[in-house]
Design a protein that fits this description.
Elements: H1 3-33, H2 38-76, H3 86-106, H4 117-133, H5 135-142
């Protein structure tokens, strides 16, 4: 948990204590005046807005922390194109070429020509498009150059 999130949670706890005190004040006002005063209602609305803001900040901070953790895990595992070094990417390309060759041999086909790093990246992009949208995504992308 980051320091930012810890501070937000602590502030949320203090704000919630103020919320409880205000609600207790409303109970006293109801006994005394038969209902809550406009000032108390305004204070309660202000506290509720602050609790909403703090909750959103915590949620946003959690999402950023989760994204950073996921990125760190991908990099630790040697994810290609995710900040991995050139040696790790080269190893992925070699493993890809080996797998393609073995797969072709098992099926009794001619092995494909080995791909270089750029070819591997293009394959990954095409596979990602196919996985998200099917063959139609590949046809649409055929006219566009790979980045």
């Amino acid at each position: 948990m980051t320091e930012e999130i810890k501070k937000l949670i602590e502030e949320q706890a203090r704000t919630f204590e103020a919320f409880k005190a205000t609600v207790d004040g409303i109970a006293a006002e109801q006994e005394k005046y038969g209902g809550e005063t406009a000032e108390t209602k305004e204070a309660l609305d202000k506290i509720n807005k602050e609790l909403d803001r703090l909750g959103a900040g915590i949620k946003k901070g959690d999402a950023r922390a989760d994204a950073a953790e996921a990125k760190a895990n991908r990099e630790r595992l040697g994810g290609v194109g995710l900040g991995a070094d050139a040696d790790a990417e080269r190893k992925h390309v070699e493993a890809f070429n080996l797998q393609a060759r073995l797969s072709a041999q098992l099926k009794g086909r001619m092995p494909p020509a080995p791909v270089d790093v750029d070819g591997f990246r293009a394959y990954k992009q095409a596979f990602g498009r196919w996985a998200r949208g099917g063959e139609a995504m590949l046809e649409d992308a055929a006219a566009r150059p790979c980045r």
